[in-house]
Every structure is written in C-alpha cells, then in structure tokens.
Amino acid sequence: MAATVLYKSAFAQFAFCLLTLTYIFRTIVQRIENTVHSLQVLERNATTNSLVPFSQDFRVHGFDIYWDSLDPTELTFMFVNHQRKGSAISIFKHQVGAGFIEHVKTVKSPLIFSPNDVVATSRSTFYVTNDIRHKSGILHKIEILLGMPWGHIVYYGPEGIASKAYSGIAYPNGIARSPGGGLIYVAASSEPSVYAFKPTYNGALQFAGKTTFRGFVPDNISVDVATGELLVSGFLNTFEMFRYNREVLFGTDARPASAIRRLIPSADTRRRFAEESILIHSGDLLPSTTTAVVQRRNNVRRMVLGSVMADHIAICDYRL
Questions:
Q1: What does the pLDDT read at residue 18?
Q2: pLDDT for position 26
Q3: pLDDT tens across 216-247, in order?
Q4: Which 8-state DSSP code applies to residue 15?
Q5: Which residues, at least 6 apart from 180, have a Cβ–Cβ distance to it below 8 Å?
C-alpha cells in the first residue's frame, strides 16, 4: 500500500529533466537551483600546461564521486570507461563551481576486464565490480543464463596495484560504501542479492552478510549519507527489460516494470538489512529504471531516478 501511494504521489508531481544522448566528452550535473548543466571533460596539455579536450575514449558506464571533508571544494570523479583498447577507470578532479572536470589518471589492469561500477575510497583508491568472467562465446551464454558465480570485485590500492578483493559472485553489478566507509555494498544481479563486506587492511573484502530478494533483480545501489540507508533500484521482469534495451532506439512498446527497495542496515549479521519497497511502477514513469539517489534540498527529500537507456530522468517526492 505504501508503495502504491508513493507511486501515485510521485506520478503526479515528478518533473522530467531532458538529457540528450548527444553530449560527447561532457558530464551532466544538477546544480543547487535544480538547473541542469554539462561539465566539459578536459585534460592538461603536457607541453603548454593548458586545458584541452580529453583525448582518450570516453565511454562511461558506472561512476562515483568522492568528497573529502578536508578539502570540500574539490571533488573526485571516477568513471568506468569502456575504451576501445580495453576498459579502464578514468579519474578526474573538479573544483566546485567550475565548468569542467580535469583528467588526473586512467587506471588499466588485466584484472579490470569487465568493469560495471566503481566506488571511490579516496581520491586515488577504489573498488570496481567485474560483472562477468567470459565476454563472449558459449561460456558467456552459460554464465549469463545460468547465473554462474564467476564475477569478482577488484581493489586498487594506494601503491597503484590492483588485486582481487572478493570472488564468487553471480554478476556483481552496482557497488557503494557506507557513510563512514566501514562497509562496502554490492548488488549481485543474478542471485539476486545485496552483499555487505568489511574492508580489511590490504583491501580484501570480508563477508559481513547479505539479503536475497524474490521477484526483484537489483541493479544499482546508492547510500543516503544522512541515514546510512540503501536505495536499491532493480527490475521486476528481466525479459521485458532486455527487450526494451534491445529495441528502444528503433521504437518499442516494451515497458519493463521497476522497483526501488529501501534497505536499513542492521548489526545482526544473520539479517543484515530490514527491507521495504518504496516505489513500484509499471515502466511508464521511467522505463528500465537503473538508479535511484536521495536528494535533500531545503529540508525537502526527493528521489532522483535514472535509466541507462532513457532520454530523461525523473524527480519525485520521497515520503515514508
């Protein structure tokens, strides 16, 4: 009942911000006054030290933004970047108020071969999910169709070395961390579950619990920094979702139903989270919803919803 009421309220009040798919080497941001802007993606010229357009491929997937309270005016952006010569994590810095992000470094490693999402743990370190082991062929089909636990998580540490942090997950997808950094959360789409891990001194992840869903396939995770609660976006009909993603550019009547689940962390490792649905929609609100994040402005709490295959986002009231 709560989800139905929230859906009706959201449907009546949500506002669309149209985002075109033609921005090349730009990042879309929403500023404090709710206007939408784009940030240029730049790099330093090694000879002149001037800022010039980013010269590498920029084919982004998951990303994260790191904020350091010791220097709150500078943000670090980390992107999963599926470059033609191999996937990587591209790291940029951004001065709040500037109209660009500046390239810092691009991290490549044989261990980062099928990255899906990244979570920053500092300005230079991160965890990244490798969703599959086999990118093509019969083993790829087996891995996807049977939900084989062949994915893993990679840690990139301060020494500039990548290492496996945890293995044996069926399609590790979205990744996030708790406000204090004491837990790392990972959505395992093919299980379907959300894991909680404790980082160790060398970056390895120690299992700390999980919750398993019925009739819901998790995609991405965001954390409400004010409460520590998780918002997990996902799908209620994966076949309809795959059909929508395949046909959307040419026109489709597919409307994959989606849901947002709220997970409240618990100290009980046997039941790591309390769970509830806070939004369920049939696909008309935002087809194939893949992301939900909390936005707080002037004591008003909203959810911002995104989709990897849609040309808009949705903003709706977030009421308990």
A1: 27
A2: 58
A3: 999 999 999 989 999 999 999 888 888 888 88
A4: E
A5: none
What would you report as the CA-atom Rg of the chain, rounded to the nearest whole angstrom? 19
What is the three-class DSSP state of 106?
Answer: strand
Here the tokens at position 179 are 């406000």
Residue type, 293: V
Instruction: Report whether 171 contacts 190 (CB < 8 A).
Output: yes
Please give the helix or strand (H or E) that residue 146 lies within, else none. helix 137-146
pLDDT for 17: 29
First CA to last CA across the chain, in angstroms?
A: 12
Least confident of 52-56, 57-61, 65-69, 272-276: 272-276
The phi and psi torsions of 241 (rounded to 5 degrees) equal -65, -45
Tell me whether strands 36-44 and 100-107 are parallel, antiparallel or unpaired: parallel
Is the torsion defined by CA of 165, 71, 33, 26 positive or negative? Answer: negative
* CA–centroid distance for 272 within its chain: 21
The DSSP bridge partners found for residue 235 are 217, 258
d(CA 21, CA 32): 23
Longest dimension (CA), the chain: 62
